[in-house]
Structure formats: C-alpha cells, structure tokens
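Following up on my earlier thread - several people asked me to post the actual chain instead of describing it. Fair enough. Here it is, all 333 residues.
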Amino acid sequence: MRTVEDPVGLPYTVNPVELVGREVLVEVRQGPPGIVGLQGGPAWPWQWMGDIATFAALQALGLGTAEARRAWRVVAENALYLWTGMEFVRCANAFQRPGHQADPTTLVGEALAGATGSAAAASITGTAPNQTLTITFPRGVTGDVGDPGSAGAIAAAQDVDMTGARQDSVLAWSTSDNKFHPITPPRLAGPWAIAGNQFTGGSNLSQSPKTLATMNIPALPYAWRPIVLTGSIGMQNHVSSVDSGRVNIEVRLGGVDGVLVGYGVSVSLANSGEVIFHPRWEYPVSPSSDLGVVPANTTAALYVIAKRVFGNANYSVQTAAAQLIVMAQPYTP
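Reply from S.P.:
Thanks for posting it. Predicted structure:
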C-alpha cells in the first residue's frame, strides 16, 4: 500500500488499485502529521568516506558487511548514502547550499618568554578575523660569563648616533630615541678682550649715545650668547652739583640699539671715577630663550656706548686702563 497527498482536503471515494506483477498497489489518502514521537536512541556510528561521483560508481564498489556504516556523498545527487552492510540508506536533504564565504583571518604572532624550566604553550585570542597567536617559550638558563671582548670605538656602539658630530662635540643622552647624540660643549668659549687703545675717549664730550669701542668676535660653528665677564673705563661727569647729570656705559650686541648684554654705572660727581662693567639684560632670559643669541657661523660685534641717563652735563672718558672681557656661552635650548 502507498499513500498519496490530498491536494484538496476532501475524503477519497475511490481508491485506485493497480496490479503490478505479483503485487497489488492500493493508493490510500495520506493522513495529517502525527505528534512528535519519543526521543530515539543514538544513531549508529559511521565512517565518512568522502565524495563519489554517481550512485552507479558507489554500487560498483561491491560493498559487503565488512564495510557497514560507511557513508559517501554522491556528488551528482548532492545526497548522502549510508551502507548498512546489506543496502544503502539515502538521505536527500543531508546537504544544503554552501554558506557565505567568511573573511580570512589575519593572525598576528606574539612570542613571550616563560619561566625557566616551564613548558611551551600556545593560545589564540581575539575574535575572527583579527586574532593573535601567542606562543610562550621557556626561558633558558643563564649561561656562563663570556670572555671580555676588546675595547671598541664609542661611535660604533648601538646606542650612539654620531650624526652632526664636530671636533669639539660631546655626547648627551636623548630620551626621544634612547641614544647618545653629539651636542655643543656646554662650557664657555673664549675669552675675547679689548683694552686701552681699542677704546676712543675724549674730554668735555656732549654726544649721547657715543660709541667708545667695538669688539668683533669671529664666527663659531654653533649658536652662542655673549657673556660680559668684566670690564672698566675711566669716566668724569662735569656736574656743578651732586646728581645733576650722569652718563653710564652700555654694552650692546649688533649695534647701538642692539640687545643689551652689559652695563656700567658712573658716579654723578665732578671727580673722575672708574666705571665697572657687569652682565645685564633688559628682558627675562632662560636657557630656552633666544634673546641675544648669535647664529652659528655668523660673526658678531659688541658695542661699548656712553649714554646720558639724566641731566645735560658734558663728560670725559679716560681710556688708559679701559678693558672689556667677553666669553661665549653655547646656546643649547
């Protein structure tokens, strides 16, 4: 007997009967689906044998009871066939359409050192397609101390970068790349000095400002700032009373209106006196400030100037014991 589907849903009044050889086939209307049955026992264990082209090729294998529970996929039908040892069981819906292609995994390797004597280990972390393969290798035991090597050149060391080195460079550590780099030596350079006949004096002078001397300093291979160490010049203010007039001394870089780098204060008395020079800045200065800095490979000139600060009295300048001493401080901001 065999069942047929009822496309209309009405009961059949005629049941076809067909005689085929020694069998009688009776078509009976298919009933509605029944309730879900009890959970069955575990399936037979079977051995997957892979793909085979057609069912005819599978039959041609001549399988017996020894090959029971083997299974193939017949490519021509995209169906699974299980050999029971006596016959094939066909599962037509065992294979559906293939799923979408996933993104390829980008695997990044990472190596770690484990404790000495520990076992090697590997793990994959992260979510596909971005994952990390971490392999832990046991750290080896500490070896014997090797023989001391021969002395090598500092410039050949791995943590030394000699780019831009000069004859007078010194090495300084840089945290930006953890290396030593050549820098300008932080010590003062010089001195440069002028005295006596390098100054221009005079009696009963009225000009203000008046250039008394010019000191020329040759170009240096690095940027620098002038430091007035000391100096002096004879000065007399022609005043009729105390504090009725005064002319002081300025040392300026680059011209009579340049950056003030030195200063000397005279006495507002009719008698002659010695004016002592000392460093002086008009504006705040710090190591990173570029005030009064002379660029590398540039000559510089310092001007010694007499300038009236108040009153209108004339003055006289004596140059016999005059002097100016200057040092160069490297500019390393």
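The longest strand covers residues 315-330. That should answer part of your original question.
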